[in-house]
Amino acid sequence: MRTRHCNVWAAGSALLAIGVLACGGATALEFKDIAGRWCTSGGTEEFDRDTLTATPAETGAQRVYPIERYHFHAKKVTVVWRDNSRGESYTTDFAKFSADGRRMIQLRNSAGPRREFHRC
């Protein structure tokens, strides 16, 4: 009888462990997911804690924008940045981060089109 209870307990424990490992909870994106240099057909963008540095491919002239804040969600990162020359703030969303951290998509909005980025 005791062996039967041990077998049932062992089987139940194994199933519980498999369930916990297989379900691996979703994690929200973090700064490390967007930090660094990204390339697109239109140029590059580099994110650090305080600034967004955009370099258009056609001119190569760096444009540095202060970052007001980041919002990290489960599947997207919202970047609020300021164009001091225009005196305006803009919000840009980045989503569809690849599992290997090498690709992301800038979602289309009033500040710009949808763009595909990859790590430079």
Structural summary, described in words:
The model is unreliable at 4-25 (pLDDT under 50). By secondary structure, this protein is α+β, with helices and mostly antiparallel strands. A hairpin with a 6-residue loop joins β3 (51-56) and β4 (63-72). The chain has an eight-stranded antiparallel β-barrel with strand order 1-2-3-4-5-6-7-8. The chain is 22% helix and 42% strand. It is built from two helices and eight strands.
Give short descriptive properties of this protein:
2 helices; 22% helix; eight-stranded antiparallel beta barrel; 42% strand; alpha+beta
Backbone shape: globular
User: What is the fold named in CATH at topology level?
Assistant: Lipocalin
- When the domains are counted, the total is 1
As an assembly, this protein is single chain
Q: Report the CATH C-level class.
A: Mainly Beta
Helix tally equals: 2
Report the count of strand segments.
Answer: 8
SSE series: HHEEEEEEEE
Q: Briefly note the structural class of the backbone.
A: alpha+beta
Percentage of residues in DSSP E strands: 35-45%
What is the end-to-end distance?
Answer: 63 Å
CATH structural architecture: Beta Barrel
Helix content: 10-25%
